[in-house]
Each structure stands twice: as structure tokens, then as C-alpha cells.
Design a protein that fits this description.
Length: about 180
Amino acid sequence: MKYVLVTGGVVSGLGKGITASSIGLLLKACGLRVTAIKIDPYLNTDAGTMSPIEHGEVYVLDDGGESVIDKERRGDYLGKTVQVVPHITDAIQDWIERVAHIPVDGKEGPADVCVIELGGTIGDIESMPFIQALGHFSYRVGANNFCLVHVSLVPVLNVVGEQVMSLNSKWPLRSM
């Protein structure tokens, strides 16, 4: 399976969702089977109870469990402290791989391409575990199977001609 990750920088609300949907539609028009995952970088167990004013739209799928918390409660970590790396980042990668392989078009088998939209903006502290996990995931699936699309506001300040904000939003992605 191929994966396309859509991220955003500088400010939220730039159109990552439209970009991800458009990429999916173009790939589907080329005859590929496409699925999509939307990841919002928060750790709440139930997105349905979050403030829509603070968070924006809430779209909850049937499979909305917190796998890291479930694993800890079952004793899978054998009394160890649950750590962001590797426990949470590994759980995020496993979840992405599992969900990406669920057929969504009524046909047997996984899709050809999974378009992943990472909500929020790169550089937000809430995004860090997800960026780390997706960086590891790109190595896990291989460079030939992973593509990154970064959507960013590029204000051009006529006085100095710089685009520093957009450049700064890309630095955390360089590790991917």
C-alpha cells in the first residue's frame, strides 16, 4: 500500500482537508482504490465530548478506541511507565496500518493508496507524538511507499521578501 500524508504549517484552516480529498479524488480517477484517515492531534478518548468551538468539526468513526490506554489497562506493558516513544508512537503506527487496510469501497482487500490528513499545524506541541510516529512509519513502509504533502501559508512581505514562517513550519518535517 502507498501512503500520502497531508500536513499543514503556519496556521490551521488552510485547506488540508480539501487538499487530501482532492488528492484522493485524482488517484481514484486514475483507477486506484483509495481510502483516507483523518488524524487530529489530541489524546482525548472521546472526541464527541470536545468543544466544537475549540476543536472544529468532530467526525467519530465506529472504531474510536484508545489502544494505548487499553493496552496499559490490560497489563501489556508489564507495569512499565507508558512512554510517548516507543509506546504511543508504536500504537499510532499500528493503528494507521490497521485502519488503512480496512476495505471501504465494498470490495475485498485493502486499498491501493491511503491518504492521511494530520490536523493542526506542524510545530504545535500536541502534534509532536504524531509527527514522530509518522516519521517512523515512513521508514517502516519504505520511501517508495510514502509521500508527504505540506500545505502552508506563504505570505510575501514586500519590505523584506521573506517567507520565514512557511520555512519554519517545515523544519520539524525534515526528520521524516
